[in-house]
Amino acid sequence: MPEARPEVGFVGSRDDEVSWSRRIVWLLAGVLIVRVLYAAVFPLDLAPDESYYWDWGRRPDIGYYSKPPMIGWLMGVAGWLGRDSMFALKLAPGLMATAGLVFIFLLGRDLYGGRVGWWSVLLLLATPANVALNTFFTIDAPLFLLWSASLWLAWRWWMAERHRWRWTLALAACLGLGCLTKQIQLVFPLMLAAFLVWGRRRPLPAGSWAHWGWVVAGVLLFLTPPLVWNWQHGWITFRHTAEELSDTPFSALRSLRLVGEFFGGQAGLGGGLTWILMISSMLAAAVRWRDSDERSRFLVLFCLPGLLAFTALSVHQRVEQNWPMAFYSSAVVLAAARWTGAPRERRRGVAWSRWAVGVGGALAAALLVVPFVVPLSSWSGARSDPTARIRGWRTLADRVEPFRGKVPRPARTFLLAPDDRYVASALAFYLPDRPRTYCWENPVHLESQYGIWGRPAERLGWDALVITPNPDSIETVDASRAFEGWEELGEVRVELGRWPDRDRRYHVFLGRNLMTVTPKSPAAGGGTARGGGVK
Q: Out of 221, 319, 380, 482, which could bridge 314 as a Cys pair, Cβ 3.0 to 4.6 Å?
């Protein structure tokens, strides 16, 4: 069995391959320059999840509340290298997303030749999903990189005749890192096993299952630290993941609406026509399964089952649009192979692909300019404003800062956002001294990483500047009983545009002398009721 890709199908001459490789280098160099410039001029704030994960990065650990630890580690590294600048945190996902495109090209080139690798990258670049990947520093950018790299390594591992252990170790390491990034990477070894059973068209090389077992063992080795962390914290990440699955009673009309939202969102993020090309290519290869070659089967098994699973889930509950994004890494290569690779269909297929790039590119370009245009328009602040969620956080910090200078004991006053992790993380990032902030979660029913870190037990005897959008929330009322006195200082209003009813309002309190972090309820005769104490 040859170590190189099979010399059948659409693979061109060596000179042709070098030409496509040079093209991709120039393309990705240009893309990288654009992404660096975009990160430098991005006009909005960090998204709430970005500031939340940034606070994870300040306290590195081997596990976190809702996600494996990789995003916290990456945030810590990016923050350290870039001195916690907005530019650094916006540049990091662009670098990872661009690196992921390199592996998409390598996968397409090794399976079908440089032409298909080029079109795979071009089709994927011209999608709103790729714009989101390189704009927001969440788990999706590193997952895209590691999933795409794992796909290429899995194919090289399958094709390798010599030095197979090298590919086994590389694949195990890449999958291990991917599983430390997002739980969905755990299905990758299962998809690889499905390929070994149903996808191959040649005799199984000796030792293949043993090598697969070593890959799985390597993944488990990488997962040992977060598993230990979860064991120490009551398997909180597993419980949170299970809670993401809704138990709402079935309703036909609701299911139709949810499925429609899911497919509409997927089509939009996938660039419209590009998404149609990917879906049609997957279905065509699946229908002609017996006649499909090994390469098509490999790609189908790494995308179609996952997309079908999320489609089935969307019948029952709302599926976040980014959940199935990893499966499109193989789908786009399959689409490029079908529509641009085969010489007999190349003219018609390339025409459709150009249309797909044009339509998707227009949608991607529109998404790129949205942060610059919408905040200045009459749409700003409306319920349908897509930028509202990532604006106003810096303003909140700017308007909270004067209150910090007016408290009686500034050096012994901490910041408390009892019921909103996003308020806590935004203040931690945007206040000038980057202070530690706290939430006040129920220790029995944790809702975020701030609950894992706990209530401010080390701040007994301190005062607290309390910022909350809901002064009557359970968390805020419970926190008020823990202080000797509780005084309302004022209100902070953050305007988001021309719709005053959509402005954010926050109440600011001063809690004097934190006495306990486990206050008794008024019925038990202990604590200070909200609104009592020093005025």
A: 319
